[in-house]
Design brief:
19% of the residues lie in helices and 44% in strands. With 91 residues, the protein is an alpha/beta fold. It is globular.
Length: 91
């Protein structure tokens, strides 16, 4: 199952822990033609796998869940303030 680094947990919580979104919100990762799309979502879509870690919630569409099963999601903020996500294999 996908796991998250401490940085990824912090950033996911910051993106979804705002007063304008419901408590069910999370980050949704979907398989795309050239990689993955990552968007904040109010709730999981039908068939999504839900990953919860240290207060962060990530929704994975079925294809992404299969492809990311043995991966670690990391995140950081670049010099311009944009969030960057990265993946690495679990040790």
């Amino acid at each position: 199952m996908l796991t998250l680094t401490e940085n990824a947990c912090t950033i996911v919580k910051q993106m979804t822990d705002v007063s304008t979104v419901p408590d069910t919100a999370g980050l949704r990762i979907s398989a795309a033609e050239a990689g993955f799309t990552v968007v904040a979502s109010e709730e999981p879509a039908a068939g999504d796998r839900v990953v919860e870690q240290d207060g962060a919630t990530v929704f994975l569409d079925p294809t992404a869940a299969e492809q990311l099963d043995a991966m670690v999601l990391d995140a950081g903020v670049d010099d311009t303030g944009a969030v960057q996500f990265g993946l690495m294999a679990q040790a």
